Amino acid sequence: MENISIILSDLDGTLFHNDKSISDFTKETIRQAQAKGLLFGICTSRAKVNAIQFLEGIEPDILITNGGGMFYYKGKKIYNCEFTVEEIRKLITAAFEVFGKDVIICADNEHALYSNSREELGDKF
After folding, report:
1. Residue 21 to residues 5, 12, 83, 102, 118, Cα–Cα distance (Å)
2. 3-state DSSP call for residue 64?
3. The whole model's pTM is what?
4. Among 3, 5, 10, 109, which residue has the fewest nearby CB atoms (within 10 Å)?
């Protein structure tokens, strides 16, 4: 345990309770680890705006979102892999052709999450 320098956690099914809350005990444990010099990070397939809405009381040193498509360290964007608008249009068109118009589509960037499903957007959207 002495060689640990970083703790990375997923959100859903890991850090979150079923209601997407994080216990005060967990928040305090994270703060104590950071106070000892450990880095704490979140790794999730969620979009950044969708992930951070649940992190009240936690200030991750590292935030990896979009399944690894965006990487932030101490609030600074280190890496961003994104599709062009034309690529997104092609992907959406192909999804509708293959799955029909009932398919749920989400697209996001570092500022917002866009979806044709209210459920995907969450409570704050």
Report:
1. 26, 10, 31, 30, 20
2. strand
3. 0.76
4. 3
